[in-house]
Amino acid sequence: MKVSVGVSARHVHLTKEDFIKLFGYDNLTKLRDISQPGLFAAEETVTIKGSKGQFNNVRILGPFREYSQVEVSKTDSYTLGVIPPVRTSGDLDGAEKITVIGPKGEITKDICIIADRHIHIRKDEADKQGIKDKQKAFIKIEGEKRGIIEVSYKVSEHATFELHLDLDDANAFLIKQGDILEIIEK
Questions:
Q1: d(CA 36, CA 48)
Q2: Per-residue DSSP letter, 24
Q3: DSSP conformation class of 35
Q4: How many CA atoms lie within 13 A of 45 on its CB side?
Q5: Contact present, 25 and 184 (Cβ < 8 Å)
Q6: Are 165 and 150 in contact (CB under 8 A)?
Q7: Are 10 and 56 in contact, with CB atoms under 8 Å apart?
Q8: Cα-flanking dihedrals φ and ψ of residue 129, to 5°?
Q9: Ranges in the chain, pLDDT < 70
Q10: How far is 119 from 46, CA to CA, in rounded Å?
Q11: Looking at the DSSP assignment, which residues form a beta bridge with residue 71?
């Protein structure tokens, strides 16, 4: 089976309450849709700040969530001076403390993670293939920096079939947005 790659740079998910604290108004402004149904990149950006450094103009992804979360790569963590755990989105157990700064305020919370590699798949398609949520899979990477990486399936009612890697994983294997990779059994 083949799967398209989506490469994810650092970004932020916010609750409506946290967004209001940062921006002083109550609605995200859609910049463009992204690959997963119903999700979008917002026009609004924030600064994320750790003990050693910061990144400005970090994109917020919408819509609002029930939790705020900052997703960075391991390389980003060195600049920020944080040690975030690798987690599935929404699992903030042991997340690193980080400050998120907007034009009207800031929040400091334990919400910084490195997102685990995953394949989005629609529930009906997963059921047809006998795939369960969080089930492991292996991706075969061809080319100059070939290899095999382990990922997990993320099953949901509305999903575009796509492998999500962070920038570090993509760069390590010379993978780019839209590349087609093979799912194998190991």
A1: 24
A2: S
A3: S
A4: 8
A5: no
A6: no
A7: no
A8: -95, 0
A9: 186
A10: 27
A11: 11, 113
Q: What are phi and psi of 78, to 5 degrees?
A: -65, -45
The residue type at 92: L
| Residue at 62: amino acid letter | G
- 0.90 exceeded by pTM: yes
Two tokens, residue 49: 């700040």
d(Cα 149, Cα 86) in Å, to the nearest integer? 15
Look up residue 29 and give its two tokens.
Answer: 């402004």
Residues in the chain: 186
Q: And the tokens for 142?
A: 């061809």
Alpha-carbon distances of 69 from 10, 95, 183, rounded to whole Å:
11, 9, 29
Separation of alpha carbons 83 and 171, rounded Å: 20
Q: What angle do CA 161, 163, 169 make, to 5 degrees?
A: 170
CA distance 113 to 177: 22
Q: Which residue from 80, 138, 141 is spatially nearest to 111, judged by alpha carbons?
A: 80
> CB of 35 within 8 A of CB of 159?
no
Q: What is the pLDDT of residues 22-62, one digit of tens each?
A: 999 999 999 999 999 999 999 999 999 999 999 999 999 99
Residue with tokens 């398209």: 4
In angstroms, the CA 36 to CA 120 distance is 8
Q: What are phi and psi of 137, to 5 degrees?
A: -145, 165
> CA-CA distance, 157 to 159, in Å (whole number)?
6
